[in-house]
Specification:
Strand content: 5-15%
Shape: globular
Order of helices and strands: HEHEHEHHEHEHEHHEEHHH
CATH class: Alpha Beta
Radius of gyration: 18 Å
CATH superfamily: Thiamin diphosphate (ThDP)-binding fold, Pyr/PP domains
Helix content: 40-55%
């Protein structure tokens, strides 16, 4: 049964009162992540917006143990903690590395790749707010084409973002998924599933940022949903090498119309100077990725049915 807001656990592990920005999607996402972990986890966090949300010792807005580490070393630090817990026989504790797109796709990718190659027993969660938001909205490897940042001020970013789930799949890890704070049931189910697996698991969460993207703080959930409704962000999971669409992306695959990407971009100030040709390129890229996802979903589903 798919989890929804009516059957989510009532226990809370993310406390009210923190230093996150108004409308921050990271708090929304990790409220449900921690529910799925049921308090049985250690969080490993580099310099990031999540560090700001958690707070620093001796105060914290999270009831779970949190270890702050150097920016490049999240997966390495998590691997060490996992090894220590294994030595102690603490198989009931999940080690969860939590990093932004900079700490995952750029500064942290060497440690993440190393952990995946060793198949370290960790769950790595990337919350992707598509720039270095904690340090002033600088461009990252996951910033979308056409988006303006403080380090791409004239024409916006010229490149498409890295495909980190594909990079992780190339490592042969046991579980890969994408999730959104706009669809908390789907997010909860994926974290809950990954929690009981072994080896390296990777989940990438779309994390809209009102301050960095330039939209009203009250519209965060709306923005997260539009990312999925347009196909800009696709909900899927890869388990044991088998790919399937999930949640609202699965409903779109069933015939529901996707919204045009311009409808999503027009509500973000970071695209206010993006020209029509670039928006058309982004739409073509979204269409290509969506059709590839559909093809893979249905081809693997046919194989399962056979």
């Amino acid at each position: 049964m798919t989890t929804n807001i009516l059957n989510l656990p009532e226990n809370e592990y993310l406390l009210p009162g923190n230093r996150a920005c108004a409308g921050c999607s990271v708090g929304i996402a990790f409220r449900h992540v921690t529910k799925a972990l049921e308090g049985k986890a250690v969080l490993v966090v580099p310099a990031s917006c999540f560090t700001v949300l958690c707070g620093m010792y001796p105060t914290s807005s999270v009831t779970l143990p949190v270890m702050n580490c150097a920016f490049p070393s999240t997966a390495a630090s998590a691997s060490g903690i996992a090894a220590a817990l294994k030595k102690q026989g603490r198989t009931d504790i999940t080690v969860v590395a939590v990093a932004g797109d900079g700490g995952t796709a750029d500064i942290g990718i060497q440690a993440l790749s190393g952990a995946a190659e060793r198949n370290a027993d960790i769950l790595f969660i990337c919350y992707d707010n598509e720039a270095y938001m904690n340090t002033g909205t600088q461009r990252s490897g996951l910033t979308p084409m056409g988006a303006y940042t403080t380090t791409t001020p004239s024409v916006g970013k010229l490149q498409f973002p890295k495909d980190i789930p594909a990079i992780m799949e190339a490592h042969g890890v046991s579980y890969i998924a994408t999730a959104s704070p706009g669809y908390p049931g789907d997010l909860y189910d994926k974290v809950y599933k990954a929690r009981f697996m072994k080896g390296t698991r990777y989940i990438q969460i779309n994390a809209p940022c009102p301050a960095g993207w330039g939209y009203p703080a009250s519209d965060t959930v709306k923005m997260a949903r539009k990312a999925v409704e347009t196909g800009a962000f696709i909900l899927f999971e890869i388990e044991g090498g088998h790919y399937r669409l999930t949640g609202h992306s699965l409903r779109l695959a069933g015939g529901k119309d996707r919204r045009p990407i311009a409808e999503y971009l027009s509500e973000q100030a970071r695209y206010s100077r993006t020209d029509d040709d670039t928006i058309a390129m982004v739409q073509r890229r979204v269409d290509e990725r969506w059709h590839a996802a559909l093809k893979r979903h249905y081809s693997e589903k046919v194989e399962e049915d056979v």
